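To the wet lab folks,

You asked to see what we're planning to order before we commit. Fair enough. Below is the target structure as tokens, and below that is the sequence we designed to fit it. If anything looks off to you, flag it before the synthesis order goes out.
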């Protein structure tokens, strides 16, 4: 692990975060993982229980530099309930008319760089999943819809 940080100190490697900020995020995440009683199984279970409310008790989201997208990208590898909303989701849903269809949300926006825009698309994907019958029937999960888009 020390070798990674030594390499980061020597040059930026073109990463968006500066070297100190990137190191701080990693070290803050390490502190969360090393807390007494932390297990990945418990973390994923808690995230899945609170996914409809955007998992407000997530300790990783309290780390400076970790937003919804970063957290959701990590969780999407562990659970199909989470999707990292990115440009492809915005473009495809806009181009095939899903945004114009409405889905009953007057906070419609494509500004996913803002928390309100990101959460709008998060809710949109969840509504789409529910329309397919998920999670009770054999519908498509938010993760499956993301992969289709």
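Sequence we intend to order:
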């Amino acid at each position: 692990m020390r070798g990674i940080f030594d390499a980061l100190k020597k040059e930026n490697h073109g990463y968006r975060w500066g070297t100190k900020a990137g190191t701080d995020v990693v070290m803050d995440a390490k502190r969360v993982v090393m807390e007494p009683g932390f297990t990945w199984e418990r973390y994923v279970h808690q995230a899945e229980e609170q996914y409809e409310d955007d998992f407000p008790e997530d300790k990783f989201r309290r780390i400076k530099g970790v937003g919804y997208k970063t957290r959701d990208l990590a969780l999407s590898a562990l659970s199909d309930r989470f999707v990292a909303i990115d440009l492809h989701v915005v473009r495809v849903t806009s181009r095939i008319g899903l945004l114009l269809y409405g889905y009953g949300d007057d906070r419609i926006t494509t500004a996913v760089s803002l928390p309100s825009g990101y959460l709008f698309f998060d809710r949109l994907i969840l509504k789409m999943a529910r329309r397919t019958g998920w999670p009770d029937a054999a519908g498509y999960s938010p993760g499956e819809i993301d992969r289709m888009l």
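Structural context that might help your review: The mean pLDDT is 82. The two ends are 36 Å apart (CA to CA).

Thanks,
Computational group
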